[in-house]
């Protein structure tokens, strides 16, 4: 077929000449054979006179376009050309009449049923026995599937590169957030220690420090969400109810010149997610839409169900998914902006109007929930975000979780503390000692020789400069099987348990923790184990 495609125009030079010169001409057997081969070619081979009358229409053309040779031969046929192509055809025939050749890598054609396709075209002039150009011959090959495959391959490469870039940024964000969490644990708790000792203007200044640290804590949580390293409590939530509940608040938030329209679908849409995180998704997307409509407009929030079957452009396994769509009539965005949209700290807003973490947070939440987010945007028309979340069919809708409450404090229990960050170690020791516990702070290197007599609990950071916290804990529990263990870390619960094989029953307190959170987790770790 490739040989035929390459020589098709030459074959037509002879074959069309045969039609033009009439039956009196004597042809060799080889030429008859070549003509038969051209007629059987999978490519469309077409010839016409310089006024556009079709003189050759092979079986490949019949298969490709749907018209038979009997319908086309001898007519000034234009059926395969898209509307408005006549001037282009006239120009092409003029070029061919002067002996020129035409090659098009890609051009549009129309089939008999009205469907369109892409073809590559090679057109050559046909000369008579005197060398005069009398006609033109074209070889046309269907490249529709080839172009579709190339486009899909290109999109897959782009998705892979974008995912790799976001993954790399996520690793960086997670590491930075971990270090910030150590610092914030110190700032938050020492600010609390001073709260009862400082009065007047000093107390007001201290309150501002505490507020700033709380805001920084929120930012690190957003970074960890993007990095998929922030642990969340999940339950079955009706997406419709989440939209209705958030809609009431958001209507008052986005301003009078922006209209919010919520369109929940008729049936319940249960998803397995964190309620607060769903609210955060809606808040970030709606506020982002508002900022894209400086002169006002409409934001539409819709829910529904969709099915993914077989191979899909969405990188999710086949199955049923809940769909959340947020659309606006705003300024839209360019392809360059859309490509970087979910990167942390990337923003097109002024420096005083955003951190660039809103959409990266949404990306992290959706990915952590096993879903997918995509965006379509046209400059000057608007933007649509589409989120797919796993459908939680047949599961009861949850009612929320209790807030953390501090335990009653210690009763003289001895706690062993291992933490490589000096200020964090001192902080943990102080909180425990001020709440009825006896403490012994040691380094990881000293763990092998430590006296474990009457030690009730080991508190250790997971990531230590030498051995890991779980390795140290394994060594100590081998010597003292009844020793309870509590880990500390600024990384996510799920990631740590997977990496260090930490069993579900062993607790991990997340940094930055408050005194209340630390004491509550210590109390849980020391609670008696009830046998069934």
UniProtKB/TrEMBL annotation:
Domain PAS: 30-100
Molecular function as annotated in GO: ATP binding; phosphorelay sensor kinase activity
Catalysed transformations (reactions): ATP + protein L-histidine = ADP + protein N-phospho-L-histidine
Keyword annotations: ATP-binding, Kinase, Nucleotide-binding, Phosphoprotein, Transferase, Two-component regulatory system
Compartments it resides in: Cell membrane
Top class in the EC scheme: transferase
A Gene Ontology term for the protein's cellular component: plasma membrane
Coiled-coil intervals: none
Record-listed 4-aspartylphosphate modification sites: 461
EC number: 2.7.13.3
Domain Response regulatory: 414-526
Matches recorded under Pfam families: HATPase_c (PF02518), HisKA (PF00512), PAS_4 (PF08448), Response_reg (PF00072)
Residue ranges occupied by any Histidine kinase domain in the UniProt entry: 175-393
InterPro entries: CheY-like_superfamily (IPR011006), HATPase_C_sf (IPR036890), HATPase_dom (IPR003594), His_kinase_dom (IPR005467), HisK_dim/P_dom (IPR003661), HisK_dim/P_sf (IPR036097), PAS (IPR000014), PAS-assoc_C (IPR000700)
Positions of the PAC domain: 103-155
PANTHER family: C4-DICARBOXYLATE TRANSPORT SENSOR PROTEIN DCTB, SENSOR HISTIDINE KINASE
Stated name of the protein: histidine kinase
């Amino acid at each position: 077929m490739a040989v035929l495609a390459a020589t098709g125009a030459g074959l037509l030079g002879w074959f069309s000449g045969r039609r033009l010169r009439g039956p009196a001409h004597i042809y060799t057997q080889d030429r008859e054979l070549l003509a038969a081969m051209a007629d059987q070619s999978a490519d469309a081979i077409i010839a016409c006179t310089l006024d556009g009358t079709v003189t050759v229409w092979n079986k490949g053309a019949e298969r490709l376009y749907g018209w038979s040779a009997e319908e086309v031969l001898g007519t000034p046929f234009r059926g395969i050309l898209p509307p408005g192509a006549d001037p282009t055809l006239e120009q092409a025939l003029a070029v061919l009449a002067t002996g020129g050749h035409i090659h098009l890598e890609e051009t549009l054609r129309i089939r008999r049923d009205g469907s369109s396709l892409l073809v590559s075209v090679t057109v050559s002039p046909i000369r008579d026995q005197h060398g005069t150009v009398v006609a033109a011959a074209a070889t046309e090959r269907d490249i529709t599937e080839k172009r579709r495959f190339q486009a899909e391959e290109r999109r897959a490469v782009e998705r892979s590169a974008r995912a790799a870039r976001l993954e790399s940024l996520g690793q960086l964000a997670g590491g930075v957030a971990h270090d910030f969490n150590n610092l914030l644990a110190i700032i938050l708790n020492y600010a609390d220690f001073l709260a009862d000792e400082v009065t007047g203007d000093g107390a007001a200044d201290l309150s501002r420090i505490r507020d700033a640290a709380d805001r920084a804590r929120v930012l690190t949580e957003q970074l960890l969400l993007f990095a998929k390293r922030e642990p969340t409590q999940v339950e079955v939530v009706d997406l419709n109810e989440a939209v209705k509940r958030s809609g009431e608040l958001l209507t008052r938030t986005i301003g009078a010149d922006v209209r919010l329209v919520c369109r929940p679908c008729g049936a319940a849409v249960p998803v397995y997610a964190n309620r607060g995180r769903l609210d955060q998704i809606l808040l970030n997307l709606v506020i982002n839409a508002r900022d894209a409509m400086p002169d006002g407009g409409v934001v539409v929030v819709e829910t529904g169900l969709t099915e993914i079957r077989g191979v899909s452009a969405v990188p999710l396994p086949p199955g049923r998914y809940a769909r959340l769509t947020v659309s606006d009539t705003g300024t839209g965005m360019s392809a360059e902006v859309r490509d970087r949209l979910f990167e942390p700290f990337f923003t097109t807003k002024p420096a005083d109007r955003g951190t660039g973490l809103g959409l990266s947070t949404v990306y992290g939440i959706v990915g952590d929930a096993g879903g997918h987010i995509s965006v379509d945007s046209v400059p000057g028309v608007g933007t649509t975000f589409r989120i797919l979340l796993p459908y939680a069919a047949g599961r009861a809708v949850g009612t929320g979780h209790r807030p953390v409450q501090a335990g009653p404090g210690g009763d003289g229990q001895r706690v062993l503390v291992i933490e490589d960050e000096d200020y964090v170690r001192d902080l943990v020791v102080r909180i425990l000692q001020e709440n009825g516990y006896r403490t012994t702070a040691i380094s990881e290197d000293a763990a092998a020789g430590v006296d474990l007599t009457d030690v009730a609990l080991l508190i250790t950071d997971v990531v230590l400069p030498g051995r890991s916290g779980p390795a140290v804990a394994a060594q100590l529990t081998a010597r003292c099987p009844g020793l309870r263990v509590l880990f500390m870390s600024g990384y996510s619960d799920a990631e740590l348990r997977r990496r260090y094989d930490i069993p579900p029953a062993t607790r991990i307190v997340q940094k930055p923790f408050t005194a209340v959170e630390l004491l509550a987790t210590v109390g849980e770790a020391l609670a008696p184990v009830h046998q069934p």
